[in-house]
UniProtKB/TrEMBL annotation:
Identification of the protein by name: Uncharacterized protein
Originating species: Trichococcus shcherbakoviae subsp. psychrophilus
Length: 150
């Protein structure tokens, strides 16, 4: 009798991150969800925090990838024009990610999806997201030099 090992998404992601040399580990958070956190270097001076939330540790689950703190709206007089740019970028350059403006002025990038234990597409979306975040940060700063970056 052949023994079948059924992986959960967390086990599959842990394995993928280990294969790729990414030291990420999941941590349980509220509502039975799990969070992976890391930082992506934009340049020598700036990094962007990112997170991957897995809704449940099963063979199939919803997930969210987010890149935080792309920029901050400091001058609220620019809000309408900034939202117009965000809408344009969402339609033309963010692919399956969505650029968002939070109530506190933080601009972030996020993706909602569903995965199975074949986590290769999820991993590839995470990697591509770092490139999209880098391009969006540069684009936002070029059009709105007053935006803050941590």
């Amino acid at each position: 009798m052949k023994r079948v090992i059924v992986l959960t998404i967390l086990a599959a992601l842990d394995q993928k991150f280990q294969e790729k040399g990414m030291p990420l580990k999941s941590h349980p958070i509220q509502n039975g969800q799990y969070l992976y956190q890391g930082k992506f270097n934009l340049d020598k001076e700036h990094s962007l925090p990112f997170g991957v939330v897995i809704a449940k540790d099963e063979a199939e689950s919803d997930f969210q990838i987010s890149y935080r703190k792309l920029a901050y709206l400091n001058n609220y007089a620019d809000k309408v024009n900034l939202l117009e740019l965000i809408n344009e970028l969402n339609q033309t350059k963010t692919f399956y990610y969505t650029l968002c403006l939070a109530g506190d002025g933080e601009i972030f990038l996020r993706l909602l999806g569903r995965s199975t234990t074949d986590v290769k597409p999820l991993y590839e979306m995470l990697v591509i997201g770092s490139n999209i975040a880098k391009v969006m940060t540069a684009e936002l700063k070029s059009k709105f030099p007053s935006l803050g970056i941590e």
